[in-house]
Amino acid sequence: MKKCLYTVEETNRLLKEGKKLIIAGSHNYLRLLEQGGWIGGSAYYCFAEGKGIESREFLFVQEIPPYCKEIEIKCYDINSLENIYLDMFDNGFCIILIPFESKTHFKYPVEVINYPLFATKPLLGWISGIPLDNEKNLKAIVYDGWSKQEYYDGAVVMHVKLPDNKLADVKVCNVFEAAGKYELEFNEEGFNIEKVSVNGKEQNFIEFIKEKNIDIRFPLVGTLSNATPTIVSFKEINEKEKKVKLYAPVYKGIKYDLAKQEESYYDMLIKNIQIEDNFILPNLCVLHFVYAELQKKHTDKIPNAPATFGEIAHILVNQTLAYLSIYDV
Fold first, then answer.
1. Maximum distance among all Cα pairs of the chain, rounded to whole angstroms
2. Which of 261, 245, 173 is nearest to 213 (CA)?
3. Are both 50 and 162 inside the same structural domain?
4. Which range of residues forms the domain containing residue 112?
5. Contact 246, 232 (CB under 8 A)
6. Residues 199, 78: one domain?
7. What is the pLDDT of residue 53?
8. C-alpha distances out from residue 253 to 40, 163, 223, 224, 273, Å
9. Number of Cβ within a 10 Å radius of residue 278
10. 320 vs 282: CA distance, rounded Å
11. What is the pLDDT of residue 299?
């Protein structure tokens, strides 16, 4: 497998060589990087060298293909982000990084489907994260390498121009199969949900989960009108607020189902994970990392990828592997 874990010194050498990079790593290590053509986000876990790794001592580095000669790094606040598709190259793609539990994290996924030119050009990215124990109460950050500026909110985006003989497409590897038991609809959009319509009958979401003994390691699965899969993970059952908290939003007008529950999460993941040969810049959900216990396993089925707090494939999805495919034309 191609090298992906680098020291700060090695990464700075790549930047001095003019490499264009997407970098995941600890808060402290990102702050030690030199100015250059890179963007980054806090991320403490990855899949590399055939196994899950807690990567506090290294940076996970992905290189933009050398045939991409032109990039532009832009930073968006919560209001200007609606222009992201308008700002993209006519033939190219962009990588977007957003901090976990920031205002933008909660606003972007709900509103992006109404952005001008939504999903007409390839947009990939991820949610930066924190250590799972978070003993130091860190907040997720994203980093603009041109200006050496870090952000706790907003989005840092690398717009990449492709040569005329290349095209890019966003891909999402969904390893889950719909159980086929329920038709779930929601009258409210967002991350915190109280009511659900189950086969046409409304009830409290928590009560439904308890009544059916749902294993919330397995997500909700649905499909947007443009065939984009939407996979939504459960964060917690909040009895006090009487709401189910999610890691991605549900949308009105979309029919969801529960994912089929499997006895072995790891076996399900390895059996169903698929990725095209011409892929670049994959990112893997940290919930796969945790639920499949990837730190205890070794496999060549999963590509080198940062384990992030949400995958962005136009919309925000969870428990997937998201990447770009590059085609010759």
1. 60
2. 261
3. yes
4. 5-173+265-328
5. yes
6. no
7. 95
8. 35, 38, 10, 9, 28
9. 14
10. 10
11. 94
> Which residues have C-beta within 8 Å of that of residue 246, sequence separation ≥ 6?
191, 192, 193, 220, 232, 233, 234, 235
pLDDT of res. 27:
96
- Looking at residue 173, its amino acid is C
Contact yes or no for 246/193 (Cβ under 8 A): yes
pLDDT at 109: 95
pLDDT of residue 128: 98
Regarding beta strands 321-328 and 279-285, do their DSSP bridges make them parallel or antiparallel, or are they unpaired? antiparallel
Total domains, the chain: 2
Do 184 and 197 contact (CB within 8 A), yes or no?
yes
Phi, psi of 12 (to 5 degrees): -65, -30
Q: 35: closest CA among 66, 11, 54?
A: 11
Determine the pLDDT at residue 227.
Answer: 67
| CA–CA dist 252, 184 (Å, integer) | 11
- CA 323, CA 311: separation in Å to the nearest integer? 9
Sequence letter at residue 104: T
Query: Does residue 50 fall inside a structural domain?
Result: yes
Which two structure tokens, joined as six digits, stand for 244? 């189910």
Q: Under 8 Å CB-to-CB from 275, ≥6 apart: which residues?
A: 171, 173, 282, 303, 321, 323
- Of 222, 238, 258, which closes a domain? 258
Q: What is the dihedral of CA 220, 223, 228, 230, to 10 degrees?
A: -10
236 three-state secondary structure: strand
Q: Which residues of the chain have pLDDT under 50?
A: 1
Are 247 and 235 in contact by the 8 Å Cβ rule? The answer is yes
pLDDT attached to residue 57: 86
